[in-house]
Task: inverse folding
């Protein structure tokens, strides 16, 4: 169960921009707290990875991740396929890329319907529609005004596979995702609309990038001594005293708009929604 894509694109072409820190402390209203039920905690030898799940975009996949995590299924599993500047894949109990859980496969959720509001547009997409952010998930979507002519008063949105985005691995069938998932460390437009994104790293992406890559850089063959997920938990399953508290900059706040413009100015004509790194504050 692997990702099948064309040859890798260069890191120089799609490297994420290191955005300068936002100056000074922002008022509390500029931030929102990640709900404990949507906070995925992955511990590794290289550090802790915190990701916000996106049930609004992929409810079936988020439910599967929560179920397996709460079973302890992911504890000790290998990062069996790691390709530098692309992604790190895990979630296979066999550690070979061929295994899965005993649960039934999950139907693909490549496009979701979103209600107006809560979307920050960063500009038009070359093929129509808007690029922007919903929560922490980068998306390609129709503008809010389009909802007025749709029966369900919603518009379609497709998550974008930018650095930090979590996606479900699958076989050739679009409905074959099960337990394996991957964490993006680069940008890959080829995956958009073909795989299900279900969340995004809000802290600890450096730990993902430090994972041992496979011996064959082109296909991410399993290394002789792969890194593992030592422990994986949903924050809500932990005693309150043990839960990390994570706040992310609210994309509806003026500070976020200022950050986007700062990034746009720095990137110029190369600006893309994947260049936007959403600031986070972590306690515990």
Result:
């Amino acid at each position: 169960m692997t990702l099948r894509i064309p040859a890798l694109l260069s890191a120089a072409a799609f490297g994420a921009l290191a955005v300068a820190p936002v100056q000074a402390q922002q008022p509390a209203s500029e931030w929102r707290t990640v709900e404990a039920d949507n906070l995925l905690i992955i511990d590794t030898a290289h550090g802790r990875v915190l990701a916000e799940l996106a049930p609004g975009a992929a409810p079936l996949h988020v439910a599967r991740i929560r179920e397996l995590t709460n079973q302890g299924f992911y504890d000790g599993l290998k990062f069996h396929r790691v390709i530098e500047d692309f992604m790190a894949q895990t979630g296979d109990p066999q550690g070979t890329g061929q295994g899965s859980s005993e649960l039934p496969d999950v139907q693909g959720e490549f496009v979701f319907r979103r209600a107006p509001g809560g979307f920050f547009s960063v500009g038009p997409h070359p093929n129509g529609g808007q690029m922007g952010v919903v929560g922490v998930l980068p998306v390609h979507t129709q503008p809010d005004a389009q909802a007025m002519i749709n029966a369900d008063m919603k518009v379609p949105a497709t998550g974008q596979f930018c650095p930090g985005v979590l996606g479900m691995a699958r076989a050739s069938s679009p409905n074959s995702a099960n337990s394996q998932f991957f964490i993006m460390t680069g940008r890959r437009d080829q995956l958009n609309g073909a795989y299900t994104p279900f969340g995004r790293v809000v802290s600890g992406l450096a730990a993902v990038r430090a994972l041992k890559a496979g011996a064959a850089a082109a296909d991410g063959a399993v290394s002789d001594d792969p890194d593992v997920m030592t422990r994986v938990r949903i924050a809500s399953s932990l005693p309150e005293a043990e839960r990390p508290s994570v706040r992310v900059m609210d994309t509806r706040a003026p500070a976020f708009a200022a950050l986007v413009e700062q990034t746009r100015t720095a990137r110029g004509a190369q600006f893309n929604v994947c260049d936007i790194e959403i600031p986070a504050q972590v306690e515990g």
Residues 51 and 201 are 4 Å apart (CA to CA). The chain has four helices and 16 strands. Confidence is low (pLDDT under 50) at residues 4-24.
